[in-house]
Amino acid sequence: MAPRKHLIIGAGTAALAAARKIRSVSPEDEIKLITKEDFPPYCVAALPYLISGRIQESGLWLVENDHLRELRFSLARGEEVTEINPDKKQIMYDTGERERYDTLLIASGSHPVKPDIKGVDKCDFLPFHTLGDFRRLQQRLTGKRDITIYGGGLVAIELAIALLEAGYRVTLIVRSRILRQYFDPEASDIMRDILSGKSAQLYEGYTIEELKGNKNKVELALSHSTVLDTEAIVICLGVKPSVAFLADSGIALHDGVLVDRAMRTNINHIYAAGDVAEAPDFFTGTPGLSPILPSAISQGKIAGRTMADEEAVYEGWVPMNIVHFFGHRAFSVGRMANDDTRVLQTIGQGQKNFKKLVFQGDSLIGASFLDVDVFPGVFQYLIRNRVPIGPHAELLFEKPKETSSWLMLKTEKEESMSLEE
Amino acid sequence: MQSFYDVLQVEYNRCPPDCSACEAACVKERTGEKICAGITAIHLPEVEFHTAMRCNQCSDPVCLAICPTGAITKSKDDGIVRINEAMCVGCGLCTLACPYGGMNYNFNTQKAFKCDLCDGEPTCIDACPLGLLSLLKSRNVMRYMRAEDAFSQGVPNCLGCPVELSLRFTLKVLGHDTFMFASQGCTIFLMRGASLQAISKVPTTICMMTNVASTMTGLKRYYRHLGQDVKCVAFVGDGATVDIGLQPLSGAAERGENLIYICCDNEGYQATGNQRSGSTSFMGKTATSPVGGKWRGKPQPPKYMPLIMAAHNIPYVATATISHPEDYARKLTKAMAVKDGLSYIHLFSPCPTGWRARTEDTIEICRLAVETNYWPLWEAEYSRFRFTYQVDKPKPIGEFTKTMGRFSHLDDEGRGELQRLVNERFNLIESLIRMNESEQQLDKRG
């Protein structure tokens, strides 16, 4: 087949995973990544570590890695795609320039949700989602010690941890409780205690009703008639897919870009992956957003293979996350419960660690652990492969590391034996 | 083409209960901290499961893809997946992504930690008291597989015959600066150009079955006279080796001719219609040792030719089979290094047609021959014997015999007799090896 041209809108994790896959399948094809940020490709998950000082900005660039240089893709930095014309198989840039593609991947990612709070514009809305945001935050923090974060999701917690590590006084305002999406109240409580122990101020169950002041000094009017002063505020209330430029393209949108199990959109030769894509859920098969790194990689890989004309089927996304903080580790994979599930979990006050397993029928569908010695990825394996747990649910709960490893290795062994047959 | 690399292999669920010697050795060698190793002992007595878990060095590592700082790389040279510690921020995403328990986390340094095969010589291998860990050198085998083929395509051998694979592989290891010597039998087809298509790209001399070793001697000496040291290699069958050509071979060995003699043993005169040879197995059914009436296959046990050759006290003798290509390749390499005498390799090579076996089972039959101790893999350098592959729990001989029709007449008693002979032969080799070991220990003390 003649070499083809693959355009990828975005240069994040999904874009890079797709580019890698295309290159491994089709050595001769042209691959071009287009990013509106004027930086080489980097990973947003690394940004908090710039604050804690574990890496410098120079350590952020993924293309400096030899492995990526071998990909031979071209990178258009600081260029924005404003329109797609599927009939002509063209994209249009903000400069008016057009470019043809053979296949097009939309991996434009997401952008932070800007809350509808009175006064949010006056104090200069500052999210934490890009390297640009980091630089703005760094400027704003100059000469200050006291910072408030609004939000209790993963980004908010990672940012809080990094700021605490760097010696800032951190206040967290959380609408319900921290990491509610991933962890049970018991686990959230333990994590809150650990953060409080590092002198973070937590306001759980509070909302911000009004922001007064400017970007250097902010007065926060909270619910429950509480008022707080802070030197800077960062708002991390989640992300939305970046799909505005697709409005007139004819591409089917819901919250994000709707894709099938091969990451195809409704329009030929156009694909989507990562935060922007609305792909099937692993458990139900219904489309949904999964703006996490592992999903970006697996979706990017599937998209890359489809674009390079390989058969590939996306099994669906599984929610998962992991947080390391002050020598503690919390992670969660899968679903945390619904009606027809069986749950094993640690209960009771004063626990130092937490474990929870959720079963549906014979399969594990969810696991979350805090400060338990296990291999997190192995639980992902058990869930993703729908490994029959049989009568071993209690054993898996009592000895999670050994039992999960046994079930995983046994499954692998049986699989390789059936392949031999 | 995907590259192939070395893998640290752990035998599944065979560790002694409560043993964590591999983990301890890794800790001692690498991190010095109890909390983190590149290999993890897993003990679950409730289901009698005891094994060790380590990184697979995946070809498309998900840990590498997920690492937000690009700290994880896979080397193109050795295939090892490594973490650049300076770049690791300790986010732990790799531990969440890796489904195989290959990624550890060091809570002291707050960085991920994984097996890097100790850059090619894993400490844990020697630490295992049962020798359950090994470094599979598939990379070397694949390197040979990719080498240029010494033969063109088109072979008139029977379907499922391993001779073609064995011979092509042999030449890939030996290299094309080889003089081949062939003789009547199944091994000749590829070398003499039995059809217009099959052509050997290396110089090949067709000998009589009676004079392979003598012809080799003559050619070797002729070239030495011209000032050239040529690599003379015979690849001939068991008939030409253990029966018809035994005397010239024994003579060449005794005279110390510098030749490589490979006997490709299919246990009979298979090319001429499956007659018995001196190498045919005890109770093996052939056209001239049938089953029926007073016959129960061949009444005599086979000559054990490799041991006869070892008794010549020559520089190198080995047994091999193509199901263990890395073992065979290592032996060919050793044979090539010999400059002061004859090297002899006896290659076990099933004949699906004569043995009445399924054509797709050939390699499996080779493997079963090793795993039942029917064909133990060993080598001897000047009568210093050594196992090159050891089977911990040998399978009963019935596992081997049931794969082929030539043993279909065996009842329990017959299998028992064959098992006894297999055990005796194995015990003989083992005793020679033990004798060498105790001699060596005495030498050390002396």
Poorly predicted runs of chain B are none
Strand order of the largest sheet of chain A: 3-2-1-7-18
Unreliably modeled segments of chain A: none
Which bin fits the share of residues in helices of chain A?
25-40%
Name the biggest interface.
A-B, 54 and 39 residues
Q: Determine the mean pLDDT of chain A.
A: 92
Helix percentage of chain B: 25-40%
Radius of gyration of chain B: 25 Å
Distance between the termini of chain B: 54 Å
The structural class of chain B is: alpha/beta
Overall pLDDT metric of chain B? 92
| Strand coverage percent of chain A | 25-35%
- Tally the helices of chain A: what do you get? 10
Taking the sheet with the most strands of chain A, its summary is:
5 strands, parallel
Distance between the termini of chain A: 35 Å
Give the strand line-up of the largest sheet of chain B: 10-9-11-12-16-15-17-18
Distinctive features:
heterodimer, A: 421 residues, alpha/beta, five-stranded parallel β-sheet, five-stranded antiparallel β-sheet, 10 helices, 25 strands, 26% helix, 28% strand, globular, B: 446 residues, eight-stranded mixed β-sheet, 34% helix
Short description:
Chain A is α/β, with parallel strands linked by helices and 421 residues long. Chain A is built from ten helices and 25 strands.
Please, could you describe this protein's structure?
The complex is a heterodimer of chains A (421) and B (446). Chain A has 421 residues and is of the alpha/beta class. In chain A, 26% of the residues lie in helices and 28% in strands. In chain A, strands 3-2-1-7-18 form a five-stranded parallel beta sheet, covered by helices on one side. A five-stranded antiparallel beta sheet of chain A has the order 21-22-25-24-23, sandwiched between helices. In chain A, strand 19 and strand 20 form a beta hairpin. With 446 residues, chain B is α/β, with parallel strands linked by helices. Chain B has 16 helices and 18 strands. Classes of the chains: A alpha/beta (421), B alpha/beta (446). Chains A and B meet through helix 1, helix 3, helix 7, strand 21 and strand 22 of A and strand 2, strand 3, helix 2 and helix 3 of B.
